[in-house]
Design brief:
Elements lengths: L2 H11 L7 E3 L4 H8 L8 E3 L4 H14 L8
Parallel strand pairs: 1-2
Amino acid sequence: MSGFSLCKELLKIDPQLKFCFLTGFENHAALFEKEYKEFGNDCFLKKPISISALAQTINSRLVKGSSPGAEA
């Protein structure tokens, strides 16, 4: 199961789930934008990323309270 498939299954269980994708594969960015437009690009993180940048992004997502259907 891909991360995208897992995310979709988890959102069925908890539609308020907050998430970000972390990947080293640039080609996944286009798929992310197509599948999860409502989240904006700040939910798709590309490796390498510093721990401080990762923590800042996660904290930002938590503060925004982004969830499917919510404005990011």
